[in-house]
Amino acid sequence: MTTTMTDDASPTAVGPRWASLASADPHTVASFYRAVLGWAITETNGRLIASAAGTPVADIADITVADGIPGWLIHFDVDGLGTALTAVSNANGAVLPPADGDSAETAVVIDPNGTRVALRAPASRHSKRPAHGTLAWGELITDDVDTSAAFYREAFGWGLTEPTGPLGRREWQTHGRSFSGLLPRPPAMPAETPAYWDVYFAVDDIEA
Predict the structure, then answer these.
(1) Cα gap 158→143, rounded to integer Å
(2) pTM of the prediction?
(3) Where are the alpha helices (H) located in the chain, listed in sequence order?
(4) Which domain holds residue 166?
């Protein structure tokens, strides 16, 4: 497999570190993930905070409290939020204005294909195997792989492996380490579904 290496001056760290879910029924959704992933759920300022292994990993909010768009929003850590947002603009992306209640250390951006992704300045670094229930992987599903590859490379210094398998899946990398995936729209995916970032959570036993 051929890998495109990245620049050591990349403004982003490795890996997805947080996910936010906007839902019409946050408490029902939280009960589902509590049962499946063992999350502990607390409520803070109208948002449900999910923790796994004692570490907060995600939040769930009513769609009217969030940004009005249902579904998951993946967050990536960046070394310097201001630097990263400047890089987004320079790479033809857009930075959304903060919503009520947003942290000053988090920003939502839109890539040139219209896909939302969040950036945040992390409180700490970790690289060990993800614990059960924590965010472990992200995957961008898009109609325009070339534009996506160019944007994330220019904005954050991410590299990509060569396509593999019947679907042409590739992996985002920094410093030779894969941390998320890139997938062209699969044939079975409805045409009306927009490009989006998928989220994956770690489990100790997939069948359980």
Answers:
(1) 19
(2) 0.83
(3) 26-37, 81-90, 145-156
(4) 12-124+131-201
Q: Which two tokens stand for residue 207?
A: 């069948």
Q: For the chain, what's the residue count?
A: 208
Residue 19 backbone phi and psi in degrees, to 5: -145, 140
**174 vs 66: which has the higher pLDDT:** 174
Give domain status of residue 146, yes or no: yes
CATH of residue 152's domain is: 3.10.180.10
Only one residue has tokens 């989220």, namely: 199
The number of distinct structural domains making up the chain is 1
On whether residue 206 sits in a domain, the answer given is no
- Collapsing DSSP to helix, strand or coil, 1 comes out as coil
CB atoms within 10 A of CB 164: 11
Distance separating alpha carbons of residues 137 and 109, to the nearest angstrom = 19
Does residue 208 fall inside a structural domain?
A: no
Q: Sheet harboring 55-62: ordered strands across?
A: 40-44, 47-52, 55-62, 12-23, 71-78, 116-120, 106-110, 94-95
Q: What is the mean pLDDT of residues 23-27?
A: 94
